[in-house]
Amino acid sequence: MKDEAVVARQLGRPPRAFRRVAVRCPYGRPAVTEQWPRDGAGAPFPTTYYLTCPQLVAAISRLEARGGVERWTRAVEEDSALRESLDRANEEQRELRPELPGGIGGSTRSGSLKCLHAHAAFALARPLTGNAGHAPDNVTGQTTSLTRMPIALDQTRREWELGHRRFQQEVREAPRSEAWLEELEAVTAALRRRVGQSFTLAELADAYASAEVWSREAVEETEPASGWPRRLSTVTDAAFHLYSRGAVDYEP
């Protein structure tokens, strides 16, 4: 599968202004892409580097949901080294895109962070001197590999395992355990349609990034018993845990 098609699958839509993959995860899949300054319609696209790895996107989204942007903005205000790094990074972004105003993520206000996803993508794509590093890989058009990066997949698999344990306990104790089993079957069937019979753990994790939406749709179609939304997260994790055993690169 071509890189652009993989990125489209990660994002759930065709990527805008796609130029190339700038950073790959340890499994060789796109993690950060580089964009053209303008998309196919000629509209400006200020984000030079775009985070596409579903696991990283989800992890950073959790940070932002807990006030990460505000917390890091305060840290920049209080730490001169961080402030200098941010200023260098924004200046480098402006040098990369002189035709477009603003720094990383289109930020125009000095000392503030607009989007942690954009800053993470920039730091990964240009890693030599921190957030503002000028990486030779990007000058030559080659791709960086995150071989030393902590693998978020391990944490995701742990979530699946814990969900499966909760599922087993509920099935043993719930008055209507058949409802849990029916919902598990519905999510598993939807998962099978999405990833097929031959898949890797990374591909399974890609499907997990959007599972909250499609697993809900799958269960709703079965006319589930009352209370199913409260069970959905546990049922989904259990389905992924069980299905992961069929991955071509599965290891306990």
Folded structure, characterized:
A hairpin with a 5-residue loop joins β1 (18-24) and β2. The protein has a 4-stranded mixed β-sheet. It is 56% helix and 7% strand. With 252 residues, the protein is α+β, with helices and mostly antiparallel strands. It has 11 helices and 4 strands; from the N terminus they run αβββαααααβααααα. 34% of the residues are buried. Mean pLDDT is 82; it is low at 129-142 and 146-151. It has 2 domains: 3-145, no CATH class; 152-244, no CATH class. α3 packs across α4 (80-96) and α8 crosses α11 (228-244).
Task: Give the topology, please.
Layout: H1 3-11, E1 18-24, E2 30-35, E3 49-51, H2 54-65, H3 68-78, H4 80-96, H5 116-125, H6 136-140, E4 144-145, H7 152-173, H8 177-195, H9 201-209, H10 211-220, H11 228-244
Parallel strand pairs: 1-4
Antiparallel strand pairs: 1-2, 2-3
Poorly predicted runs: 129-142, 146-151
Tell the overall outline: elongated
**Largest sheet at a glance?**
4 strands, mixed
Radius of gyration from the alpha-carbon trace, in angstroms: 21 Å
Kindly name the structural category: alpha+beta
Which percent range fits the helix content? 55-70%
Strand content range: 5-15%
Number of strands: 4
H/E element sequence: HEEEHHHHHEHHHHH
Tell me the strand order in the biggest sheet. 3-2-1-4
Total helix count?
Answer: 11
* Span between termini: 28 Å
**What is the count of distinct domains?**
2
| Overall pLDDT level | 82
Short overview:
By secondary structure, the protein is of the alpha+beta class. It has helices at 3-11, 54-65, 68-78, 80-96, 116-125, 136-140, 152-173, 177-195, 201-209, 211-220, 228-244, and strands at 18-24, 30-35, 49-51, 144-145.
